[in-house]
Amino acid sequence: MTSKKPIARFILFGSITAAAIGGCSDRHDNFGHFSTLPDKGWAYNDTVAITAAGLDSTDTPRRFKIGVRHDNDYDYRNLILEVTCRDGRKFWRDTIDMQLSDIYGAWLGSGIGPTYQAETTVSPSAHISDSTIISIRHVMRLDTLRGIRQIGVIIDKP
To answer: Which of 4, 12, 63, 97 yields a CA-CA distance of 20 to 30 A from 77?
Structure first.
């Protein structure tokens, strides 16, 4: 009569090894990246480009958000952004009007101290892969926008 313990151990060891190798993948379901803007301000023609590197390239729809980190030096209630996504031959552009404060001047984002973060959903079901290049620029009627510290993208499953 043969023992089944060596076979069970082999199966258990194989399962643990496969799980460990799969867990070390460079691909992820979520992505987030913020770019720091110059202290002197965000110039009108300066475009921030972010590639969703490391995002799992399955064609799963994901929630696509823009995040803004600003301080009390920002003088306006809103921020108008032009967002462009390129992925090979696919291209789309949208204009986003982010509300950063209410009509009384209270910041809508979260934060403690002088810095606040606000987010807005660009698309609840965007098809974004690891080769998608996301370009963001402000289209406010100013040459240089002050008070915006960082701009970023957040991609996650809805």
So the answer is: 63
